[in-house]
Amino acid sequence: MDFVIALGWGLFGGSSLLFGAALGWFARPSARVTAAVMAFGSGVLISAIAFDLMDEALATGGMAASAAGFATGAIGFTLGALVLARAGAHGRKRSSDRKSAGSEAALAIALGSVFDGIPESIVIGLSLLDGEGVSLPIIAAIFLSNVPEGMSSSSGMKASGLSKSYVFGLWGGIALLCGLGSLAGFGLFRGAAPEYIAVTQGVAAGAMLAMIADTMIPEAFEEARDAAGLITAAGFLVAFVLSHLFG
Question: Where do the H-state alpha helices sit in the chain?
C-alpha cells in the first residue's frame, strides 16, 4: 500500500506538467499571471527546502552527509543546465516568448522537464519514509513550479505544428516518469542507512535551489517586477505555516 501511495503522490506532482501543457495549448494565461504563480511557487519551494528537506537531512544523517549532498546537487544541476541550455532549454520554465520556439527547442524544454523532475519526484518518495505522510509544502511547491514548464513547451510545440496527440502523449509520459521517480525514491531508500538518505535529500535540495535561482526567480521578476518579492515572501510564509502545522 505504501508503494501505491508513493506512486500516487508522484503522479499528482507530475500531473501539473500535463495541466500546464493543457493551459499552453488551449488557454495560455498572461505572462504576468504565470509569473505570479512562479514567484509564489519559488517562495514555497525555498521554504520546503530549508525547513523540510535540509532540516530532515541534518536530523537523519548529520551535517557532513547533508552538506556534501547539497553541494553535489547544486553543481550537478548547474552542469546539466548548461548542457540543456545549448540545446535550447534554458528558458524551460519561462512563460514568455514561447510562440516563436521551434520544435527542437520545445523538445529540449520537455527533456529539461525530465531533468528537473528527477530530484523533485525522488523528494516526494523520500518524504514518505518516516511514515508520517507526504510533505504538503513540497507537493504544493512542485505542483506550482511545473505548470509554467508544461505551458511553455506545449505552446512552442503547437506553434511548430506538432500534433495534439503527440504533445499530450509526451507530457503524459513525463508525468508517469515523475510517478516512477517518487516510487524509486521510496522503494530504493526504504531501510537504507541514514547517511545515504541524508545525502540524497541534500542532492535534491541543492538541485532544486539551483533550479529556482536559474529559472524561476528570473522569470518571476521579469514579468511581475516590483510585486515579485512580496509574492515570493507570501509563498514562503504559507509554506512555513503549513510545515509547522502539518509537519
Answer: 2-22, 31-48, 55-61, 63-86, 103-126, 136-159, 164-189, 194-211, 217-224, 227-246
Residues in the chain: 247
C-alpha–C-alpha distance, residues 85 and 222, integer Å: 19
Q: Cβ–Cβ contacts within 10 Å for residue 40, how many?
A: 25
The three cell numbers of residue 46 are 525555498
> In this structure, are residues 119 and 197 in contact, taking their beta carbons and an 8 Å threshold?
no
Three cell numbers written together for 45: 519551494
117 CB-near residues (< 8 Å, 6+ apart): 14, 17, 146, 174, 177, 178, 181
- Condensed to tens digits (0 to 9), the pLDDT of residues 50-94 reads 888 899 899 989 999 999 999 999 998 888 878 877 766 555 555
What mean pLDDT, rounded, does the chain reach?
A: 82
The one-letter code for the residue type at 1 is: M
Task: Give the residue among 12, 28, 18, 177 at the shortest CA–CA distance from 96.
Answer: 28
| Full-model pTM | 0.78
Give CB contacts under 8 A, 24+ apart, made by 133-138: 134/5, 134/9, 135/48, 135/52, 135/243, 135/247, 136/242, 136/243, 136/246, 137/44, 137/47, 137/48, 137/51, 137/52, 137/239, 137/242, 137/243, 137/247, 138/48, 138/52, 138/53
Grid cell at residue 159: 506553434
- The CA distances from residue 137 to 49, 142, 193, 194, 238, in Å, are 9, 9, 25, 23, 8
